[in-house]
Structure formats: C-alpha cells, structure tokens
C-alpha cells in the first residue's frame, strides 16, 4: 500500500520552504499534483507515484539520505558544538534540510569512515550492543606491537574502568618503534581503540576508521569529501 503524506510536509522536507511558506505557495498556484493545481496544503499525496511540480520543476522526493564522509582530523561527530567545527559543516546545505546525524562517532582527532543519515532506525540497529557490528581501524602505535598483543586482544583486554572487551582481531602491518596495525572490534566503547592499546602499555598516535560492517571507506574520497551511498552499500553497513 502506497504511503501518503501531506503535500506541505513533502515539500518542506526537501527544503522548498517551511509549512507556513508552502501554504502561501498554494495560494500562488505554483504547486501541482498530476497536472492539477494544489490549493490545499493538507492534500494527501503519494510521493513515489504522483507527479509533483513545484514552481515549474518536478519534485523527486525521498525520505532518507545516506552519506559516506571521509572525516578529517579536527571535526566533532555531532550536530552541534559550541567550540569546535562539526562534521555537518563539511556537508552541502542542500542535505541539511534532511537533518542528518552521524551514525556513531569518531573522536575529534580520528579520521576515516563516518556515515551520516536521518534514518533513525538504521542508526539504532547499527549501534545496538546486541548487533556487534564490526568496525575496522588502521592505526599508528607508539611502541613495538607483538604477537603477544594479538593474543591478548583475541582473548579480550581489561580497560581502565575494569571493562572486559570482546575478542578483537589485531593485524600487524609493521612492528617498530612506531608500529602500524589494523584492528577489528565488535563494540563501541568510548575511546576504545586508544584504551585497548593503553592496556598493553602502548599509545595510539594516529587512528583512521576503514570500515563499518562490510561497508568500506571509498579510497577515492579525500579527507573532508563525501558522497551518497548506493542502495547496496546501505545494506552493507549492518552486515558482519
């Protein structure tokens, strides 16, 4: 069964104006549905199947947006902050009418994959502790990372607050005074990757998220760049 919405809600959701403004536009006769001028802002319309024209332009309605951002250092994963720039500052204003928000968070100094959406149900499913959606990070570590660390992370380590982490998969790319690793975790505690390495007396000096679920960061996106996700990619976010 087709989902019908008020014409003023449809048009305000995509940034054509506030509901009060849409009401005025109805009086001007610049809105039509299936060839008929709309005078009633409360008219129920099927946005997927009805042809909606606003000021001479065909309206392509969508309820949700899904954006992949390659988050740079220095930005807060939030929709508002009094002191620091936020990730939404990187997004074109045309997307902001959808009121997107970050799915989870990356620390201010962490780079990499961040998904922005206004789909609250998707966000809830991805962040649910019961789902254990895997997240893979690349990191540079101050200290020599060894096979002992691989074993410790696989068993689970104890964080500074006494929390025992779930088993995680540590891959050593380079073992030196500054080591390079990839780490896959299945939960999302505050500063978790940093705290895990602190538990084995090492320090994260650079951190970048590579993937969430089976969704991988697009290597063609430079820091601060973003693009919309494909339908196939949206499904990958939740896959383990």
From TrEMBL:
Its EC number is 5.4.99.19. InterPro entries: PsdUridine_s_RsuA/RluB/E/F_cat (IPR042092), PsdUridine_synth_cat_dom_sf (IPR020103), PsdUridine_synth_RsuA/RluA (IPR006145), PsdUridine_synth_RsuA/RluB/E/F (IPR000748), PsdUridine_synth_RsuA/RluB_CS (IPR018496), RsuA_PseudoU_synthase (IPR050343), S4_RNA-bd (IPR002942), S4_RNA-bd_sf (IPR036986). One of its GO terms (molecular function) is RNA binding. Keywords: Isomerase, RNA-binding. SUPFAM superfamilies: Alpha-L RNA-binding motif (SSF55174), Pseudouridine synthase (SSF55120). GO terms for cellular component: cytosol. Residues 5-63 form the RNA-binding S4 domain. The keyword RNA-binding applies. One of its GO terms (biological process) is pseudouridine synthesis. It holds the Pfam family S4. The keyword ATP-binding does not apply. It is an enzyme of class 5 (isomerase). NCBIfam families: pseudouridine synthase (TIGR00093). Belongs to the pseudouridine synthase RsuA family. PANTHER family: PSEUDOURIDINE SYNTHASE, PSEUDOURIDINE SYNTHASE FAMILY PROTEIN-RELATED. This is Ribosomal small subunit pseudouridine synthase A.
